[in-house]
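Notebook B, p. 112. Complex prediction, attempt 2.
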Amino acid sequence: MHAVRLKGTVKNLRVGKVVCLARNYSDHIKELGNETPDKAVLFIKPSTSVIGDREPVIIPGFSQDCHYEVELAVLIGKWGKNIAAKEAMAHVAGYGVAIDMTLRDVQNELKKKGLPWEIAKGFDTACPLSDFVPAGAVENPHDLRITLKVNDQMRQDGSTAQMMRRIPEIIQAVSAVFTLEEGDIILTGTPAGVGPVKSGDLMTAEIEGVGRLEIPVQ
Ligand code: MG
């Protein structure tokens, strides 16, 4: 069972689906040469891709270019479908740190052919997640420093203030397609600075006031 811990509670929530938003920070869109989407670009990671703090990412043998993307993770605490933006924050149980591990070479091949990204984004260990802090403990989730280091070198250093779609709008867009249930998780996109890791590297991802995640690469 893939579960996440919500700090300050006795709850371990079984992870349902992990819905991810692509292209939500303009500086990251530019670095990959993508277009700014007029609709939310979504994909799903299966719960089997989830690992916890200090568990290793295992790069599949069919990729030579595995990238990190640090992201603010939103834990859903309440069932909902077609959730209005103004009601959305009531569905958030907590916040955590995620790394959206991406096989960039595989993704680029799939993109070129117009094929789905799941092989590049949903492989086993592709979704490291920290423990979650209760939503009430985070005063403003849209103003948090978000960083990722590889072997102590800063690679990503942004702010959740740079998100183009904010959490209420994201929940509205996601729940218009997928019913959200307790234990589902939404990844909200990554700032600029994504890049490759290799076996032996150590990633340290951190979001101010939310948490920290240390993930070795095997
Ligand atoms: Mg991402």
